[in-house]
Write a structure and sequence with these properties.
The complex is a heterodimer of chains A (about 475) and B (about 220). Chain A is an alpha+beta fold and about 475 residues long. Chain A contains 8 helices and 12 strands. In chain A, helix 7 packs antiparallel against helix 8. The chains are: A alpha+beta (about 475), B alpha/beta (about 220).
């Protein structure tokens, strides 16, 4: 049998558990109160009965049987609250205020007895009260019984116990109601999350959970879920975009390659042309396609990984110096003024190879797009925020502000760079490396326009120093 | 040279064997790690070219088994997996070099020949000599025809690598990997500029150029 959904919820189950614990504790508590109050009351009543019996014994010793008889008759009519019965040796009643001895067979020794006492109330009805008494044989052989109506004391205890049971019942009812309320509230919030998860499972990655602003663990869960969906959506969108871009960007060189080979084949069959040169050209084309493919794959791998793989700790300036050393001859040959400004004593954790490649891509772009006579500046420093910044500033044509975001996307090449070599993946890779290290790629204007140069571009790979 | 090619892609191994035979090498082809192990036990090879991912016994396991048996034949791993961790895995298993697919044939030949050469020069050298060129590895000095040549540290490393592989083609990727220890492909031909600087130092003023460009492959230092 399946329980109703509400009953199966965690908050409701927890409520039930706590109620059960509470009921157990309350029972123990009631038991203790009962024993403490009821036991105390009956002990006090017994002591009073014994005292009364002793005082009557004293009367008997002084005034003999007649004195006792007189005292019992006198005390029966007073309001001392005791029950008396004086009997002869055989147990036949002689005097007192109860008709029948409550203890059937006259005992030889002192005996206690509990019994019910039927009493006629002032309004004529009769009620049965619990009573208790003590019977003893006097030195002359007569029997004396002294008892008391304990109904009042026990009734008092009973009232307390009933009140406590009532309170317990009230607590249980309120607790159950509270449990239902809490379970409903929590399950409403949980349902919202479940709905989002179900939507995502069915392919709608745009659904987002509502963060109520309470700052509780449900909000944390909702925020975490949203963040996860955000990343998932981005990475799937990225993959889709990459797929389109690869199809687009690989199709044209492949088409070109195919056309060239076909033309070369036709020429060769006709006994004209240079088949060897055509094969060389085809090889170059194929290499270009493979290079593009490799770059796209590297970016996709970086984006798929939560964090860059194989991270080590190293000195970012040593890394920058190595890459600068690699590019210095190229920029000098192109007639550029190349300079590096590396702050010492920094430390960075990351994938050395990827960061070196990212920095190489930035330098590559700067050297490629800066006309002769210009300058390229590489700088590594720690920002006030503690982040490590690798920046490359050039005096090339720069990138218009409107294009800066676009230029980082895969395969985007600006119109004026069509003739420069490259597949338009350099900055995308830098951005992917930055993201895989929890950092970012920044693009700004360079030093500005002067001497017909500029305004230049400043690219910065900013990585958190962890 | 006798070469063992262990590769499950028959078309790829065929093309490879044809190309290597054209270059004057004797090739045996095995289609998986198990047959590769058998072939390796049977014949003496100068270099083994081993694909990483193969049915039955994969390349890494195969080379590990070979090394356990005391076979020290140089191994060049071929793999579509090119991350640093993959390279490290291959080299730890006992591989001597690691080439990521797809590769240019010139790259493969250059690396195979470099591996075969490495085996010959086992002892630690303090002096390298190629024709008129002399390199003192302890004093960090280079002379051509007794005339001292002043080199930057990186140029010294570059020349050392070329001298150790004198007479062989070395590719730009090999230089980048061995001299600079970078495993990426710079878009601009940065290596060419380094080479041309080195060339101007060791060849300028001498009647015969030693550092030559090999079309479609890379560079070669000739005695």
């Amino acid at each position: 049998m399946r329980l109703p959904r509400l009953v199966r919820t965690t908050p409701f189950r927890l409520t039930l558990l706590f109620l059960a614990l509470f009921a157990a504790a309350a029972s123990a508590f009631l038991g203790y109160i009962y024993i403490a109050t009821a036991g105390e009351a009956s002990r006090a009543a017994d002591a009073a009965i014994l005292r009364e019996a002793h005082s009557l014994e004293a009367v008997y010793r002084q005034g003999g049987f007649n004195g006792l008889n007189d005292a019992v008759i006198e005390r029966s009519s007073s309001t001392r609250g005791f029950l008396y019965l004086v009997m002869d040796e055989q147990g036949a009643p002689i005097s007192g205020d109860i008709a029948k001895p409550p203890i059937a067979h006259p005992p030889d020794t002192n005996t206690w007895a509990s019994f019910g006492l039927t009493q006629t109330e002032p309004d004529g009805s009769s009620a049965r009260h619990p009573a208790r008494g003590f019977e003893e044989r006097l030195p002359g052989g007569e029997l004396l019984f002294v008892g008391a109506d304990v109904g009042e004391a026990q009734g008092y205890v009973l009232k307390i116990v009933n009140a406590l049971w009532g309170a317990a019942a009230l607590v249980i009812v309120l607790g159950l109601a509270g449990g239902v309320f809490v379970a409903r509230d929590v399950s409403r919030n949980m349902n919202a999350l479940t709905d989002v998860i179900n939507a995502a499972r069915l392919g709608d990655l745009g659904a987002r959970a509502r963060v109520r602003g309470a700052g509780d663990e449900l909000d944390e869960l909702a925020a975490g879920l949203n963040d996860m969906l955000e990343r998932l959506e981005k990475s799937i969108g990225g993959l889709r975009h990459a797929g389109d871009a690869i199809a687009h960007d690989l199709r044209s060189p492949l088409t070109r390659l195919r056309a060239r080979m076909e033309a070369a084949l036709i020429e060769a069959e006709a006994g004209r042309g240079d088949p060897v040169a055509a094969l060389h050209q085809a090889l170059d084309d194929a290499d270009g396609v493979l290079k593009t493919f490799g770059a796209v794959l590297a970016i996709a791998r970086l984006e798929a990984a939560a964090a860059a793989p194989d991270q080590t700790r190293f000195d970012p300036c040593e890394l920058a110096a190595g890459v600068a050393e690699l590019y210095e001859p190229v920029s000098e040959e192109k007639g550029l003024d190349f300079d590096a400004e590396l702050a010492a004593g920094l430390s960075l954790r990351g994938n050395h190879g990827f960061i070196a490649q990212a920095l190489a891509n930035l330098l590559d772009n700067a050297v490629k797009y800066t006309p002769a006579g210009g300058a390229v500046m590489l700088r590594v420093r720690r920002r006030a925020s503690g982040d490590i910044e690798f920046s490359v500033t050039d005096t090339g044509p720069g990138v218009a502000e409107a294009d800066r975001e676009r230029v980082v996307e895969r395969f985007v090449r600006l119109e004026n760079s069509r003739n420069a070599p490259g597949a338009g993946l350099g900055l995308s890779l830098v951005a992917a490396v930055a993201r895989a290290h929890g950092g970012r790629l920044e693009l700004d204007e360079g030093p500005g326009c002067f001497d017909g140069k500029g305004p230049g571009l400043r690219t910065a790979l900013v990585l958190p120093a962890a | 040279m006798r070469l063992l090619i262990v590769e499950d892609d028959v078309e790829a191994s065929d093309a490879m064997a044809r190309g290597l035979a054209e270059a004057g090498h004797d090739c045996i082809v095995a289609p998986d790690g198990e047959k590769g192990l058998l072939a390796a036990h049977d014949g003496r090879f100068d270099v083994m070219i081993v694909d990483r991912m193969m049915p039955r016994i994969d390349g890494v396991a195969m080379v590990e088994l070979l090394r356990k048996d005391g076979d020290q034949t140089p191994v060049l791993f071929l793999s579509a997996l090119g991350e640093i961790s993959h390279r490290v895995e291959g080299l730890k298993a006992g591989g001597d070099d690691y080439l990521v697919k797809p590769y240019a044939f010139a790259e493969l030949i250059a690396r195979v020949e470099a591996l075969a050469r490495r085996r010959e020069t086992g002892s630690v050298q303090t002096l390298l000599r190629v024709g008129e060129l002399e390199m003192d590895l302890i004093g960090r000095e280079v002379r051509r025809k007794g005339q001292e040549i002043d080199l930057q540290p990186r140029e010294f490393q570059l020349l050392e690598f070329l001298m150790r592989h004198a007479g062989q083609s070395v590719t730009r990727t090999m230089l980048l990997e061995r001299v600079w220890e970078y495993h990426f492909d710079p878009q601009t031909n940065v290596i060419d500029v380094h080479i041309s600087r080195l060339r101007s130092k060791i060849d300028k003023g001498f009647d015969r150029p030693m550092l030559q460009t090999v079309r479609g492959a890379g560079y070669r230092l000739e005695a």
